Every structure is written in C-alpha cells, then in structure tokens.
DNA sequence: CTGGAAAGACGAGACGTCTCGCTTTGGTAG
DNA sequence: CTACCAAAGCGAGACGTCTCGTCTTTCCAG
C-alpha cells in the first residue's frame, strides 16, 4: 500500500533539489512546458521520487514558491510592513517593491504560473490563496487598520475592499500585460485610491 | 499546396459546431485537458477540419469566446454603455451585469480558461487582450471621458487607471476566488473608487 | 532488512499528418 | 435551363511520434 510513504525517511537533499530545479525550469521554459521529467532530470532525481511526494507539478511549484517566499523574506531583512505614520508613503513603498518583484523574471515566472494554474484548478487555487496570498493581504489590512484607527481613513472603510483596490489593478496589469508596471503607476494608484476620482469641489 | 485553404468554400455549419463544442468541453474538462481530438469528436467533425482553419486549441477557444461575446451582445439587446448622466449608477449597472456573467458557469469557464492561458502564453494573451478585453475597456473609458467632460471627475483623472480601479479588484476576486462576487461588492467598489477612502474632513 | 531513491521500461493517450470516399460548389457545354 | 464534372472541403479514422504518469528493478542508507 504505497498510499502513505514514511515521511521520516524522506531525503531532504532530494526535496530541496526538486524545489530548486522546479523554480529554475519554470523560468526557463514556462509553466506549460514545465515537465516533471525535466525537473527530475535537473534535480538528479528519479521521477518516482517526485510522484511519491507531490500529486502534480502545480503542487511542486507551490511548495517551491513557498520556499522562495520564505527565503526572500529573510534575505531582505524583512521587518514587517512599514509604518512611518504616512499611509500614502508606506503604501507606495511596498507597492513599488511589489512592482519590482513582478518585473523580476525570477519571481514573475513562478508567480504567474501559479496564479494561472490556481485560476483553473480550484483546489490548487485555494491552497495558493491561503498559504501565499492571504498572509500578504493581512499585512496590508493591518496597516490600513492602524490608519483607520488614527482617523486617516473614513471610519466605515471596508479594509479588505481597500486592499483589493490597491492590489487588484496592479495584478490586473501584471497578469494581462495591458501596460508596463512602473513606480509611477503604483504611486498614482495609491493617490487615487485614497483620494478618489470624483470631483469633490463640484459637489 | 494546402497552405491557403479557400475560405469561400468553408462550411459554416462545421465552424459553428467546432466553436460550440470547444465552449462546452472547456467547461467540462478545463483548458489543460481540452483536446482537439475531443473537440472534433464532439462537433462531429474530422480533425483535419480543425487543423485546416486554426493553428492551435487556444486559437479555437479564442474564436469561440469572440462568438460567445458577440451572441451575448445581441441577445441582451445591447445598445452600448448606458449614459443616464448618473455616472455612479451607470457603472454599478454595468458591473452588476459583469458579476452576473462571472457567476454564470457558461461564461465563467471559457473566460477563466482563456485568461489563465493568456497569462502564461504571451502571444495568446496579447490577442485575447486586444480582441476581447480592449473593446470592453474602451467602452468604460468613453463613459468616463463623458463624465470628466461634464466636470464629474477630477480634471486630470487618468481614465485608463480609473477603469482598472473598477475592473482590477473585480477580476482579482473572480480569478483568485478570495470572496464571492456580489452586487453589493461592486456597488461598494464604485462608491469607493469615485469617493476614495481617505478621510477628507480630517484634512 | 526495511523502505526510499535513481534509472529507465512500459502502456496510455494526444499530437499532427495522411489517406480514403463522400458531399458541396461553381464553372461549362449542350 | 439543365446536365455534367473537376476541385476542394468534409467526416472518419489509421499512422508514427512524443510525453505523460506508473511500474519494475537495482541499489543504498539507517
């Protein structure tokens, strides 16, 4: 009954090699042409070793991305969402960093592949959202909560909606490539989200 | 020399059957498992008839979606983007209709498949954006242009950015399934995009 | 000596091409 | 106007190829 392999005997060396190879390969050939055989070959690993521990290449890539996100956090000496008291400046700072990541092929390829795969495979999408996305969203929401407490936002502001007003348009441009992602874009986005576009003086 | 088949002799019956079958099948098995052989079988058509007129399954699905969008327009007696003079009401009306489409399995499956495929295949994504998305965006932009001319928006409003502030968050929720899509959601979105979230009275 | 790991053989199934008659089309001769 | 006929698309499906995920074998570590 090969249903439940013994995790205690699992080779950590193989596990890391597989995750690394998956990230490299998805950047080289894209998600569609990413193949478990190629991952196994690049990692110097038997195919069965991958099939034993992961149900699909999407699952491999999700684990690889989780590891990548963990690495990125530590290596950037991440100290949490900035809070200088200036909400607009803090948001612009973080969104600029996000734009830089989206423009970095190293992060773009796996993120794009996972997002696309998650859109069509609900189960994968749920794990992707829960494990990678939600923790990020919570950071934005916490910063907005502080701002609302400080009276910088309309008291009944829907914080989750506001987070989506920031990340939605950004993600939209990124996924659909309707226009290049720039710092100027996210700066303008923050200003308009906070200020709105209606002509208040004309009211 | 089979390079250039004679389009005037093309069977419209087969063409429609193929596009219909593609839409049905993508809903049943998803884009990844969608196969040209299956489309041909379902449509009661020879494989060669598909290969003769389309270069890939992506192209078939794109054409099918274009046809679907065209049908939806006519059957809804679409008369163009509403312009009652009340910008907020018009936007809410259109976004509610969009939510209804996203919640309709018939439209959801192909749209989701195409969006996801376009995200990882740049060439397909470009054609998807250009032929299906941009025409829609232009309608929003035109309505916003009218509003700006009428002094209902801040004079230097970036219209494209504003369109993305409306569709970005909606698309975000739709693709990532972070929360259900409701009319209440889009209504709130319109209000916040127009009005912003910053506490103006505290300035 | 138990069980994961590496290597690769294996069957399944989709690919894109092809061949085969059948049907449709559009031009031509009577 | 009708009858004929060549040309081209059509439905069906066989074909060789490729890649998938599983299965088998051998090896090695604890």
From TrEMBL, chains A, B:
Xref: Pfam families: TetR_C_11, TetR_N
HTH tetR-type domain segment(s): 12-72
Annotated keywords: DNA-binding, Transcription, Transcription regulation
Gene3D superfamilies in alphabetical order: Homeodomain-like (1.10.10.60), Tetracycline Repressor, domain 2 (1.10.357.10)
PROSITE patterns with a match to the protein in the record: HTH_TETR_2 (PS50977)
SUPFAM superfamilies according to UniProt: Homeodomain-like, Tetracyclin repressor-like, C-terminal domain
Provenance organism: Streptomyces avidinii
Protein name as annotated: AcrR family transcriptional regulator
DNA-binding region: 35-54
